[in-house]
## 1
Amino acid sequence: MADHDDVLMYPPQVLRQYAMLADGERGVIVGPRGDFCWMCVPRWDSDAVFSSLIGGGGIYAVTPEGPFVWGGYYERASLIWRSRWVTTSGVVECREALAFPGDPRCAVLLRRIMAVRGDARVNVICDPRPEFGAHGLRSPRRGDDGVWRTELGGLHMRWSGAGDASVRTTPHGDRRLETNLEVPAGGHHDLVLELGDRPLTGRHPDADRLWEATETAWRETTLRTGTIADRDARHAVAVMRGLTSRGGGMVAAATTSLPERSGAERNYDYRYVWIRDQCYAGQAAAAAGVDELLDDAVRFVSARLLDDGPDLKPAYTVDGGPLPDQRSLDLPGYPGGHDEIGNRVTHQFQLDTFGEALLLIAAAARQGRLDDDARRAAHAAVTAIERRRHGSDAGIWELEDRVWTHSRLICAAGLRALAGAVPDDPMAERWTGLADTIVAETVAFGVHPSGRWQRAADDPRNDGALLLPAIRGAVPPDDPRVRPTLEAYVEQLTDDGYAYRFRHDERPLGEAEGAFLLCGFLLAIATHQQGDDRQALRWFERNRAACGPAGIFSEEYDVTQRQMRGNLPQAFVHAVLLEAAARLAGPPCGHTGAAPPR
C-alpha cells in the first residue's frame, strides 16, 4: 500500500499529464512532480516495484523545492524525456530515460538533474517496493564508494549518485532513501538506479557512458520522411520501439487497470502482446519504411503461428508464453477503477488474427523481407482459416462469440494480399479462390438492406471495424458496399470530429464509451482511399490532438472532458497514426495492402 505522505505529495493525475520511459523490456510512467509512479521489473508483466499509480507502494521521485510550474518534452525520435519545472527562482530540468536497449534482467534508470537557470534545489525519494508494495528496503548499505546496495523481494538494487542520502523510516515502519540535492547554475548531477533479478556485481556504471549509448541506440532507427506529420510519426516509432522487446513482441501498453470508464468495470491488463496489435504495428512500419519494427512483428507473429497453428491465442507474454488468468491485487486502484492483473483474452478465439497475420507477412514480402519461417507461418495461417472460418469467434472487440462480418472479410483480405505479394507460390491461385469464396459467403449474411456492411447476420449495426475490409483489400475501393458503409459510419458513429466503435445502446455516443482513436485514424485512411483528402486530413488532425503534452495516446478519449481514458500508451493507436501519416502523404492507392509509392 502507498504511504499516506506519498499519496498527499504525489496524488494520481489525469492521464494527459504522464510521460513514459521504456527500453523494450519494461516501462516507467512519469508524473508531473517528477514521480516514477509505475514500473514492473524485470519485465513488462512482472510485479511492479513502483505502483502508486494504482494505489500500491513504491515511488522514485525528483521534485523541485518550493512552488513550480511543470512542463516537459521528448528529445527527437526517442523516449528520452525532459521534465521541466519553472520555479520562482529559476528553471530546473531532469533528463530521464531507461538505458536503451534494455537488459531483460535488469532495469537501469537514468536521471540527470540540470540547473538550466539559477541554482537547482530538489528533493529525492528512492523507495522501490516489489510485488506492488509488499516488500520494502530491508537493510540498505552505503559502500565506501558512496553507492547504495540492497536486496528486496527477490530483486537486487544499486543506486549511485546519492552518497549523501539517508535512510528514513516512515510512520508505517517502512524504510526508504531520501536526500536533498543542490546543483549550481549551469551544472548537472546524475543518479543511476539499477534494479534486477540477479546480483549487481562489478563497478557501478558510468552515467556519461550510459547516456551516450542510449542516445546512440535511439538514433539508429530509420524513418522514411515525407509523412504529413513527421514529428508525430517519429514519436510514434519511438513509442513502438520502446514497447517492443528484443524477442520482437510489442506489448499493447505499459500499464494495467487504468479505467476506460469510471466505475464501469472496464479495467484491463495490457502488458502483453496482442497478435492483432503486433500486425497493425508491422503494417504501419511497412508503410513508413521502418524495417526494424516490421521485422520484429513478422518474427514474433511467425513464431506463434508455427508453434500454435489453428490454436493461435489472441495474446501472449513477450517471450511467447501464455497469459496468466485475471486476478485482483486488493489495492485501491487508479481513481474510478480497480486493480486487475492477468487477462481472460487467452481463452478466446479470434479468427481475424489469421487474416491480419497474412496481411503482415504479405507486407514483408513486398518489402523483400520474407524469410522461410514467415513463409511457413503464412501457410499455417491459411490452413487455420480453411479449418476454422465457418465457426464463431470473439471478433476484433473481444465480445461474445458470433459470426462477425469483419473477421471473415479480413481473412479474405489477407489471402488476397498474400497471393499478390508472392504470385510465384504454387498455392497463390488457391488463396485467391478461397478469398473469393469467403467474400461471397459473407455477402450472404453480412450486408444490410441499405447496401452497407453490417456487423453480423444477427446484428444490423455499423461498426468501425467495417472500414477495414476495403482499406485492406478484401474488396476493391469501388465495391458497391464500401461507400455506403463509410457514409453511414460517419453519420451514425462520429461526433465533433471523433469516431466511435459501435453504438452500444440508445445513449449518446460519448456516454456509452469514449471516442476510439484507432477508429478515428482508420476513418482518415478510409476517407483518403475514397479520394477526399480534405476530410481525411480533418479526421487525422482531430484525432492526433487527443493526447497530452508528452504526445502519448490512450485507447479512448473523453470528448466532453477532453481527457484520455484507459491504459497508456496504447500501442495500436500510435501504429495507426503512423500508418495514416504515411498513407495520407501520397495519392489514394487502392487498398492499402500495398505500400504507397516511395
## 2
Amino acid sequence: MAESVADVDRSQAAAPGGPPPAGPRTAAPMVVGAVLTAVLLSLAGRYGYHRDELYFLLCGRHLDWGYVDQGPLVPALARLADTIAPGNLVVLRTPSAFIGGAAVVLVAAIARQFGADRVTQTAAAVLAAASGIVLAGGHLLSTTSVDLLVWLAAALCVVRMLRTGDTRWALGAGLALGVGLLNKPLPALLGVGLVAGVLIAGPRRLLSDRWVLAGTGVAVLLAVPYAAWQAAHGFPQLDVAASIAGGDSSYSGRIDAVVLQFLIISPFAVPVWVAGLAALLRRPSWAAYRSLAWAWLVVVTIVLVAGGKGYYDAPLLLVLTAAGVVPAVEWARRGAPRIRQALLVTAAVLMAASSAVLLLPTLPADRLPGFVVAANYDAGETIGWPEFADSVAAVHRALPPPERDRAVVLTGNYGEAGALARYGPQRGLPRAYSGHNSMATFGRPPDDADVVIVVGWSRPDRLRAWFTEVTEAGRVDQRVDVDNDENGEPIFVARGLRRQWSQIWDSEVRHGS
C-alpha cells in the first residue's frame, strides 16, 4: 500500500545525488518515550535526594545569573519545583523524567532523518530508552539532564539542515545551544565539534551562511548573562574545570573517560554506535552527514586530552546510535533474519535489564549490592541523607546547653550542607555552612561562632590551625551497608576559634577540606 503524504515529509525531499529522504512518520517512538517517562516518575521517590539535587535546592534559594560551577537553569527549576511542592522528591525530578521521554523521541527523530523506516525508528527509541545516559539523566535532576536534551535537539536541527540544505534549521540549533549555555558551558564543546567537523568534512560553505551565523548569534546572545556573571566573578568555572581535570570529581580521569565510552550507552549497544560511526564516515549516500562523525571524534578527543568527564560526549554517542540502528536493522533483515533479529532483541532486553538494575532504584536500598555502587557511583549518593543528619544531630544534642545554643555546623561539601538544610531544622540543628563551590558565597559563620560541629572534613590538621581544640565526637552512621563518601566519616567538635571567620573564610576555608 502506498504511504500517505502525511507519512513522508515531501517538502524536505532529498536532492538528486544527496542523502536519502527522511523515513515515514510513526507514533511508536512517542509511545516508548511516554512509557519511559511513566516508569521514571514511578521510581522518582525511591531512595532519596542526590547530593547535587540538595545543592540545586540551596542554589535555588539564592537565584542568580550564575554560580561557581553552573548556570542558572537547573537551580531555577529546583526553586520552581520546591515552590510548587516543598520537599517533594517526585516533583523535583519530574522535569528530568519528561526530558528522558523527550530524549527517546529525539533519538528516533534523528534516525528518521537518516532514512529509518517505522521499525527502525522504533528500534532507535527502544535503544535510547534503555541507554544508561537517558536513564541516569531521566532519574535525577541534574545539569546532565538538561545537557542531554540540548545536545539532541541541536543535533536534530543540524542533521535536518545537512539533509535538506535548508540552513534556517541553524536557528533551532543556535536556540538549543543558547539555552544549554544557561545550564553549563558544555554546549560550546558541541559547537566546537560541529565547526571542526564541517571544516574537516564539509560542506564548508555553512561557515559563512547567513542563517548559520544568525544561529550562532542567537546562542551567543542567550549565553551573555551567564558569561557576564562568570567574567564579573573571575571565571570560577575554570577552577572547577581544572579540579575535574585533576581527578577531583566522580567520573573524571582519562582512563575512566575511555571506559565510559563503552558503558555510558550500554556495552550491548557498542556494536550499534560503532556501525553508526562507520556508516557516517563511509556510506556514499551519507556523505552529507560526515561532519557529524568528525564532530564526535573531535569532541571525545578534547574530553580525553583535557581530562573532562567521560559522559560529556554521551549525547553524540546517541546520535551515532541513531545512525547505527539503520545498518543494524538492515543486517538483521539479511541472511538468516530470524536468528539475527533474535540476537538484536536479546541484546536490547539485556541492555534494558542491566541498565534498570544499575541506574534506577529498582533494588531495595538496604540490600543494595556493592557492584551497583561500584558501577554507578550516583546510586550511593542517593542513600542515607536523613541518617546523615541524625548522626550530626546526635553530636549536637551531646553538647553542653550553652555550647549547643551558639554552635554552627561546617561541612566539607555542598551535598552535606544541602542535606542538613533539608533535614536539619526538624532535628533542631543550627545552620550548616560550607566552603565548597558556590556554598562559599551563600554566607559564612558569624565571627563569634567558636563552637563548630565539623563533618566531611578530611583534613583535621587544617581545623587545628583554626581552632585551639579539635576532638572527634562521633561517626556518620547511615544505617545501611553502602559505600559512599559520608558513611563512617568522623564528626568533630572544634572550639576556640583562633581568628575570625571573616579573616579565614575566603582565603582558607573556601578552598575546600
